[in-house]
Amino acid sequence: MTEWILSTENLSRSFGGLAAVDQVSFQVKKDEVFGIVGPNGAGKSTLFNLIAGVLPPSHGKIEAFGHRIDRMPTQKRCWLGIGRTFQAAQMFPTHTIGESLLSAGSAKHRGVAGWLRPVDLKSDRQEMLEFLDFIGLAGMEDLLPSELTNLQQQKLAIGMALITDPQLLLLDEPSGGLIEAEVLELLAFIKSIRVRGITIVVIDHKMRLMMNLSDRIMVMSAGKMIALDVPKKIASDVNVQNAYLGRPAGSD
Amino acid sequence: MITRANIFPTITGVLLLVLLPFIFQSPYHIQILTQLLIWAILFTGLDIAVGHAGLVSVAHGALFGLGAYVTGILTVDVGWGFWSTLPVAILVGALVGLGIGLLTLRMEGHYFVIATLGIGLLITIVIRNWTELTHGELGLSPVPKPISFESIPLNPSLTMYYLMAIVSFVCVAGSYLLMRTSTGRRLRAIRDNSALAAAVGIDVSRTRLVAFLISAGMAALAGSFQASYLSYIEPSIASYEVGFTALMAIIIGGRATVAGPFMGAAIFVVLPEILRSADEFRIITLGLILILVVLFAPDGLAGLSKIAFGKIANLFSGKPTNPNRNSSNVLLDRKDAS
Q1: Domain-embedded: residue A232
Q2: ipTM for the complex?
Q3: Distance from CA of B90 to the nearest CA of A (A)
Q4: For residue B202, which residues of chain A lie inside 8 Å, CB to CB?
């Protein structure tokens, strides 16, 4: 039996008269990688912000893990098990890499005990080192984010989302600013997250990455969903080719 | 909680507090030192909001005055002893802080500063004009001392000094330990990047509110002792000038540091005494110091001394300095301040 983790129903958001996201309904299955693609201005980022809690929708609803989340504050979505990254990798600029991960994990322990939890617990440090290792930055805990490459920053951003123990990870343009070789490394990295049993929703415009990574791909154009299928069928979908690719899929 | 990194500064600080009256022995100097400690409590409280939570509040002068007036009214007009008024003053300060926080914490940057200025002025106006309660410009006196001096063999000013030394130590230690908890870590994350902080599950508004509430309570506590120290209070104790002075003091002293509030207090207590004969130069001199610090030592005097101590320590240990790390921090702090 398939288990839905995230679903939207007639989700819409308009800015003035412009419908940036228009009646979008889809469901994300547990343990899949769900890709969202579309040309610039298709409404991908708006859709992402609606799910992540940056914007409230104009109409429609979003459910995650059986809860209505479309009016839920950002931090509560995180508590529910939704982790996210940002389009331009967001950092804590004065935190070292190690501190960044510790800060990102600091809200996991809630209640008064969570507020008063000492910062120098060995177990927290151990966990930080494990995540540091997982994101491939072992030994770099004392560097500042500004001293990292784009790929390392992206991995740190994902690491900070992962240390909150999400079941669903939202990745916003993870390949932004990366060169070809780095995209391949990122691809391998994201696949390694899957193995941890985390469902992933990813938005990106690099088609080859998305074709390789996603189990299913949703194509958006002008705020509407125009296709939703496995990558092979998306590549050969005439609508998609006309609306978005304009050339054979996969040529990037 | 005592670690190898903080044991040396702690011992130095405690020794300074204990030994200063032996260096400056006249009652006049000891009174100045006592005033310094009361300011340091106010500045430490304000620094929780400004330095740690990034909430630049000008309302803390009014909260300080509020604490002073709660103690003043309850002792002079109601007849309570000093110590029973202290928790009430802290509570009133914290509650008003909570109110200010609820009204303003959704505002960003400049709007927040203006809003706290407005609310601070409002509190000052109420204190000045609600004469049935506060006696207006006539003021309130005599506010009793916390300790009956007959029972202690020390001279009164020395007793008050050591009491304030203990209270300021407790406040500083409390603030320091709070910052060594998850609350401190979350505050720092919010100050660095509030959108990212919310995304990793930190409740931005509630964390800021808690910090502001504690900060307001500590300002009121300082005000309560100030009322007793002066024994006479009038509305200027709650003026916006106190709020601005406090803000300048922690910028000059150094934000988010333990020593910063004390260094700021030293400047703001000692300098006016030195320049007493030339009052009109006082403001100009303070302004000049502020400009110089902001330009050349954005981490304040505490930041400067840290760099200096670091260099000296490295000279002895032979470790190379890391100029790269220092400069990047300074740059980031400037961005943070803008």
Answers
A1: yes
A2: 0.90
A3: 21
A4: 75, 106-107
